[in-house]
Design goal:
It is a single chain. By secondary structure, the chain is an alpha/beta fold. 31% of the residues lie in helices and 21% in strands. It has seven helices and 14 strands. Strands 1, 2, 3, 4, 5, 6, 8, 9, 11, 12, 13 and 14 form a twelve-stranded mixed β-sheet that branches. The chain is globular, with a radius of gyration of 19 Å. The protein starts with a strand and ends with a strand.
């Protein structure tokens, strides 16, 4: 078994990556600032791909931290591309060049790991550092072929859970992996380090069958603005507070403390007694408690 992070004699340094409102980043920053003497890591730098619209510059000033800002849209535009999607060989090549610029600008900060707090663009910076990503869905749920049912971006995991009749939602923290091509095959496939306690789905009094009917009657490629989508967004926002904001800081602390290890696709967690045990994941509760999900023998 290997530890994801194995540093002795000092606190590991992390970088927080963010693209938007920064709510998850701010929760991590507040936890770090309020508990800096006891917390198991240091935050060395904030990173954003959207400096003009993201709150990263504001948060960097508020918490007196340096900021690395490499505007991905400007980078692509300067190279003759009007979109950043990984849909062509040139755009994929530009993503690697953009990531190389991130690497150069991050080097002075001696980062040991990364917290992806709402960072939108895929990047293979994951080859350089362990990168923890928070996700609005329980990624331990799989179909019969082992595919993670609640993978996907933005509202999609929550909407999928609703349509499938799931009654609870959880957030997950995973180790983000590297990708090839357009990245869809590798999305949300890393080790699931932690999940939040369950949050009940709220359907706002609308029958599940009606929402399922709306889903199946959508036209392919249609940008849906219907009641199902509105309910998914509402539940997503609630899950951010009940799930993301609980599980992400707690997993970051345990990760920096060296509590997580792996062997291939097997995940291990160091118990309070000091020994490691193989687990499926670890559940984290709002009161600060945690519960390893041990594998059945």
């Amino acid at each position: 078994m290997e530890k994801f992070l194995n540093i002795s004699g000092r606190k590991p340094v992390c970088a927080i990556f963010l693209s938007g409102s920064g709510s998850n980043a701010e929760v991590l920053l507040n936890d770090w600032q309020e508990n800096r003497e006891s917390i198991s890591y240091e935050i060395g730098v904030l990173v954003t791909d959207r400096p003009r619209t993201c709150r990263a510059p504001e948060l960097a000033r508020k918490f007196n931290l340096p900021l690395v800002a490499v505007d991905i849209a400007e980078f692509y535009a300067a190279n003759g591309e009007d979109a950043i999607a990984l849909t062509t060989p040139k755009r994929r090549e530009l993503r690697e060049r953009w990531t190389d610029q991130l690497r150069r600008e991050l080097k002075p900060y001696q980062v040991d790991f990364v917290l992806l707090a709402g960072f939108v663009p895929l990047t293979n910076i994951t080859r350089d550092y362990p990168c923890l990503n928070v996700h609005p869905g329980d990624l331990t749920i799989e179909d019969s072929s082992g595919r993670r049912i609640l993978a996907g971006l933005h509202f999609k995991p929550v909407e999928t859970a609703i349509v499938k009749g799931m009654e609870i939602l959880r957030s997950s923290v995973i180790i983000a992996g590297t990708y090839t091509g357009n990245g869809t095959g590798e999305m949300d496939t890393g080790h699931v380090l932690g999940v939040s306690a369950p949050m009940h789905v709220q359907l706002n009094g609308i029958e599940l069958g009606k929402l399922q009917e709306i889903y199946w009657n959508r036209k392919a490629g249609e940008k849906a603005e219907d009641v199902l989508r509105a309910i998914a967004w509402r539940n997503l926002e609630d899950l951010k507070h009940a799930g993301d904001h609980v599980v992400f800081p707690a997993v970051a602390r345990d990760f920096a403390s060296g509590r997580f290890g792996y062997s291939g696709d097997r995940l291990y967690f160091r118990l309070d007694g000091g020994s490691f045990a193989e687990v499926k994941t670890v559940e984290y509760f709002p009161d600060g408690n945690r519960k390893p999900w041990f594998l059945e023998k």
